[in-house]
Amino acid sequence: MDTYTAIINREGDIFVALCPETGTVSQGKNIENAIENLKEATELYLEEFPLPHQSRSLITTFEVAPVVSQ
Fold first, then answer.
1. Residue 55 in domain
2. Cα(first)–Cα(last) distance of the chain, in Å?
């Protein structure tokens, strides 16, 4: 079993989930539902377009100073 990344964003009253390794996107009424739908979409995608085995992505965050208008 391979491990993929899910990036979740809230858009209004739904959650949108993106898998950056495959480009698949799905949505749901809550985070769990969005991930479940993304898993299904990704599995269907991989049936058609299998990916070679890859190492897991590194996900981190960083801060950027706000731009001050003059």
1. no
2. 53
Between the CA of residue 45 and those of 5, 61, 70, what are the distances in Å?
15, 28, 48
- Domain range for 35 is 7-48
The structure's pTM equals: 0.82
Q: What secondary structure does DSSP assign to 38-58, as a single string? A: HHHHHHHHHHHSPPPP-PPPP
pLDDT in tens, 20-64: 999 999 999 999 999 999 999 999 999 999 988 777 778 888 999
Residue 57 lies in a domain: no
Among 48, 50, 57, 49, residue whose Cα is nearest residue 21? 57
Is residue 60 in some structural domain?
A: no
If one counts the domains in the chain, the total is 1
